[in-house]
Amino acid sequence: METVLVEDVLHRFLLERAGVRGALVRLGPAWREVAGRADYPAALRGLLGEALAASALLTANIKLDGELSVQLKSAGALRLLFAECTDQGRLRGLARWESPLPQPLSLEALPQAVMAITIGNVERGRRYQGLVELRAPDLAGVLENYFAQSEQLPARLVLAADGEHAVGLMLQKLPDEGGHGAVQDEDAWTRVMHLTATLGAAEMLAVTPEQLLYRLYHEESVRLFEPRPLAFGCSCSRERVAAMLRSLGRDEVEATLDAQDGHIEVDCEFCAQRYRFDRVDAEHLLRDAGATGASGTA
């Protein structure tokens, strides 16, 4: 199948001979938009790009209503890592850190680190969160362990990022009924893993998705599905910021207004959108909160 989409795209595919399903994501402008929001150290920029690619990959084979996010917090120099992909293919991400970052930047060595994958729709109040054990130095290894425990099916992830692109490949072994000839081919998964092991970061970053799949798996009967376009996008809104202010309560909102000359300004860290509330705005949102009895969602 031919397509003109070579960047900011998610490809789902099936290796029919091997009984393996996969997803391949290649980010260009969307990743550069995220990476350009801060002067990230090289190692952290690479990790953030991998997380952004992974957030898109993880949406490939689920029915998503809302957002899927990958979030890591630690008590070390890497304070926060966050990447999100929505059901509309909108991506955003950021990281917070303190210098100097450890070298190498190993996830399993971060002190008091917690990683979570969250799926759901915040506005509808439906969310599922799974905690991810950090038992590998890199993000791909961490997510492979997560799949082994949560889905009990083998998975292989390859992630890479530089200043221009963020890319990711995910492979999952199907149950016995999947894939033509897969039941009889007991070596199929091992064979696909050997092929995948030949893939290096430089090749992955340089080659377009369809070319990459052909080079690796042309003997495995690759079946490509319709590509899914992706783009940078932020889910922030004035309504969400207002809900956050309501959750703070009247005393804190009024104290902030007094300290900031009668207005509150909130900047979105993802897209730099600024939201401004004066005393009239604050009174309206606080009065609304009192009328509904809702505290809002921070």
UniProtKB/TrEMBL annotation:
Keywords: Chaperone, Cytoplasm, Disulfide bond, Redox-active center, Zinc
SUPFAM superfamilies, alphabetized: Hsp33 domain, HSP33 redox switch-like
InterPro entries xref list: Heat_shock_Hsp33 (IPR000397), Heat_shock_Hsp33_C (IPR016154), Heat_shock_Hsp33_N (IPR016153), Hsp33_helix_hairpin_bin_dom_sf (IPR023212)
Stretch forming the signal peptide: none
Gene3D superfamilies for this protein: helix hairpin bin, Hsp33 domain, HSP33 redox switch-like
Keyword Zinc: yes
Pfam family, one: HSP33
Domain of life of the organism encoding this protein: Bacteria
Protein name stated in the entry: Hsp33 family molecular chaperone HslO
Natural source organism: Rhodanobacter geophilus
